[in-house]
Amino acid sequence: MTLENIRILQIANEAGPLRLFVLPVCDALKAQGAQVELACMEDGPNFAPLAAAGYPLHAIPRGSWKKPTHWVCVYRHVRRLLKAGRYDLMVVHTPVMSWIARYASRGLVGATMYVAHGLPFTPRQPWHVRTALRMIEQFAGRYTDAVLVMNEIDEHACRRYRLTRPGGFCMKIPGVGVNVDAYAQPLDDATRRQIDAEFALRPDKPLLLYLGRFIPDKRPGDILELARRLGDRADFLLAGEGPLWDQIAAEARKIGPHVHVIGWTDKSADLVRRCTLALFPSIFREGLPRFLLEAAAAGKPAIAYDVRGNCDVIQHGATGALVQPEDVDAFCSEALNLLDDPYTCQHLGAHAAGLIRQDFGIARSVQFQVDCIRTSLQNRRAN
């Protein structure tokens, strides 16, 4: 099926997922003749760069999801957008926006696809929370032709609970993919010196890196505990944004000048290639963490909690270490062991790079998504 002149809307609550994960898919669709547009709330540091990416960008009203009036406002806005756009396909990302947009799409869009960067219900949640979120997803599934998931647990849940309309399908894709060749290139001496100078890193010390959101379930405070135990044996750098950022930055300053907390940076790829270990103490509802894919592509071992998504990237003892969720002592112990054993650290990183190149390259991920889009459109037209 040709995608020539097919109108596609990619929609998320924030600009971050669209800018960081979705643009390569948009480029591939555009190359095949599709007309791609984007929509998200006009908020955060990623909105302006997304607006400059070359695709029509529709701003959705900002507000708090804690206010029911905001849900109604977003629903009405999305409904008007879909009615005016006459889209052949809507691709939704992020849970709350996906619930609203899928319900708003009824009777207005040819087909609807949900890319689940981690389903909102997980085995670790209290049963009543898990059940409520699952029932919301099942309701939204009535208006969903395809669900793309990124890990085995989500794939099983999607099929078990029938999260699509009759005739729809669920597909596990290799995450959002990673540019393996770009991350596999070691830093040249000049770039390394530039990165060390810009972020006040010591050339003779290992760098332990975290990239991600500063929210409770990502547990950046566990990295600070490791920093306290290690002293100044290593440099630490935590980069991202979120409600805990100010608190984590203040605590980091108390630990010492070797612990750096910064916002999002366009030098993240260089930092990944510069680091010695990737740290990811998240117990969040992960899909397939991009940071772990990037670290593996750069040949860096990672230490993470053994939760959904993390365990789909890391093979314990082969490419990094997985420890029981919230076991800070075990998390710190694994980091100390790898820092004390450079040979094992290098061996794990090399094995990780090989697995990522084979299974999680960005071209493979993009092709999966484009194929699923084509299948969704064909199925809807056939029905």
List the SSEs and their pairings.
Layout (H helix, E strand, L loop, with lengths): L6 E5 L3 H17 L3 E7 L5 H5 L5 E4 L7 H18 L3 E5 L1 H10 L6 E5 L11 H15 L4 E4 L2 H10 L7 E4 L7 H5 L4 H10 L8 E5 L9 H10 L4 E5 L5 H11 L3 E4 L5 H7 L2 E4 L9 H8 L4 E4 L4 H4 L6 E4 L4 H12 L2 H18 L2 H21 L1
Helix pairs in contact: 1-16, 3-4, 4-5, 9-10, 9-14, 12-15
Textual characterization of the structure:
The protein is α/β, with parallel strands linked by helices. It folds into 2 domains: 192 residues, Rossmann fold (3-Layer(aba) Sandwich), CATH 3.40.50; 180 residues, 3-Layer(aba) Sandwich (Rossmann fold), CATH 3.40.50. The protein contains 16 helices and 13 strands. A 7-stranded parallel beta sheet has the order 3-2-1-4-5-6-7, sandwiched between helices. The chain has a 6-stranded parallel beta sheet with strand order 10-9-8-11-12-13, with helices on both faces. Strand 4, helix 4 and strand 5 form a beta-alpha-beta unit. Helix 9 packs parallel to helix 10. The chain is globular.
